UniProtKB/TrEMBL annotation:
GO BP terms: carbohydrate metabolic process
GO molecular function: protein-glutamine gamma-glutamyltransferase activity
Compositionally skewed regions (Low complexity) per UniProt: 391-417
Transmembrane regions listed in the UniProt entry: 330-351
Top-level division of the source organism's lineage: Bacteria
Region of interest (Disordered), residue spans: 360-432
Keywords carried by this UniProt record: Membrane, Transmembrane, Transmembrane helix
Listed name of the protein: ABC transporter permease
Keyword Membrane: yes
Entry annotated with the keyword Amino-acid biosynthesis: no
């Protein structure tokens, strides 16, 4: 081969190598320029100088017309935010445990490192196990991470949304300078207290308390107590059914504080006698604002109003209809019998005494009359006594015996016996 072609090929290879080297240098320069951060420059109007955001003056002399030189400056501070969190349901019951899972993301343009995450549950939440502090080695720009913390709601916590604070402390390097930052983020977790609003069974009017009468207002009573730690509100009572009238269809009770007790009285008037069936509903809102209802079936026997002629067919509502049927104690009957016997005995004794007094009085009256009659007839009897005694001695003797017998039967005294002979002769003569 001749020397001329060889020289020509050698020149071509040197040219290709030079072109390739130049292209490689250009590519490296472009890469280097692109890797540099963009500089924010400001113009100083007085000095005509360009300054960067970090305060370094670089600038051009207005007269010389030379170009400004770009220098790297620090970018925005990277922020960590929580993008999502969960707590095992719609709400957390007071005293129960749950898992709090939250996702945090680096919203800056540079990576962060040496991150410390702290969870603070305040007065409403406590860490169920382990520590409330976690360490993250690094989190690149735009990246996110999820952390789960076991927690427990305090039994005495108030109902409603309660705060949880998550703190992030971290470092980052920007423009060759290492800096630190901290951000505190609050999230809310709703706590629900158990519904412990209790209502007892309704107390119905029965026959022992007067019963329920057609056309007469009666009342059904219910006792309630709020055993929960939260208040209940808008308590109302409503009775649904037919066969009765009520002045207020819905009776408003109001709010019931924690630990409070009371009673609900629903007044109504039965329309007619017979069986009355209805439903008594108690509605309220619990501490979480949820509306709840308690229902109680009512079965009541309604009686006709008793009619009495004394008051025009009306009956006293306060009168006990079973007052006449009440049982009398046995000792009452015993006392009554003893009292009756004593009264009878007293009456018998009084009657007998009065009879004795009356009999004695009659005898005294007869004696007084007889004595008065003898006194009036004593003189004539004495005048004619001698003749009669001489004429008929037998008769005078018989008369005297009769008078003595009569006198001894009435009064057996010696004085009376001595006065009989002179009186007996005329008395016997009169009878003859």
């Amino acid at each position: 081969m001749s020397p001329a072609p060889m020289i020509h090929l050698s020149r071509l290879s040197r040219r290709a190598a030079a072109i390739l080297s130049a292209m490689a240098a250009i590519v490296m320069l472009v890469v280097a320029v692109l890797s540099l951060p963009s500089a924010a420059l400001a113009v100083d109007s007085e000095a005509g100088k360009l300054q960067s955001n970090n305060g370094v003056a670089l600038a051009e002399d207005g007269d010389s017309g030379s170009d400004a030189t770009n220098v790297p400056t620090a970018g925005p501070v990277p922020n960590i935010i929580i993008t999502n969190f969960t707590y095992d349901g719609d709400s957390v019951a007071a005293g129960s445990s749950f898992n709090l899972a939250f996702t945090f993301q680096n919203m800056g343009q540079v990576a962060v490192s040496n991150m410390v995450v702290t969870v603070d549950g305040g007065e409403s939440f406590a860490i169920a196990g382990g520590s409330n502090t976690f360490y993250v080695d690094a989190l690149w720009a735009g990246y996110f991470m999820t952390q789960t913390v076991p927690m427990q709601a305090v039994a005495s916590a108030q109902s409603g949304a309660q705060p949880v604070t998550v703190s992030f402390r971290y470092e980052y390097v920007d423009a060759g300078v290492r800096s630190s930052n901290q951000s505190d983020i609050k999230i809310s977790v709703p706590i629900s207290q158990p519904d412990r609003f209790e209502v007892s069974d309704p107390v119905l009017p029965d026959e022992s308390t007067g019963g329920a009468y057609a056309g007469q207002e009666t009342t059904i009573t219910l006792e309630y107590v709020n055993k929960g730690k939260g208040d209940v509100s808008n308590v109302e009572a409503t009775m649904e059914g037919e066969g009765f009238d009520a002045t207020q269809k819905t009776q408003y009770v109001g709010n019931v504080a924690s630990g409070a007790t009371g009673s609900i009285g629903y007044a109504f008037t039965p329309q007619a006698a017979g069986d009355l069936n209805a439903t008594l509903k108690i509605t309220y809102e619990d501490s979480d604002g949820q509306s709840k209802t308690k229902e109680f079936p009512i079965a009541l026997s309604v009686m006709d109003m008793p009619v009495t002629p004394d008051n025009g067919g009306m009956v006293d509502p306060n009168l006990d209809p079973n007052a006449n049927n009440q049982t009398v104690p046995w000792w009452t009957w015993l006392l009554a019998v003893v009292a009756l016997a004593v009264i009878v005995l007293i009456v018998v004794l009084v009657v007998r005494r009065r009879k004795k007094k009356a009999k004695a009085s009659d005898i005294d009256e007869e004696w007084d009359d007889w004595s008065a009659g003898d006194a009036n007839t004593g003189a004539p009897s004495a005048a004619g006594g001698a003749g009669a005694g001489a004429t008929d001695g037998v008769t005078g003797t018989v008369g005297t015996g009769a008078a003595q017998a009569s006198t001894s039967g009435a009064h057996a005294t010696a004085a009376d016996t001595e006065s009989i002979p002179p009186v007996a002769a005329p008395t016997a003569a009169r009878h003859a």
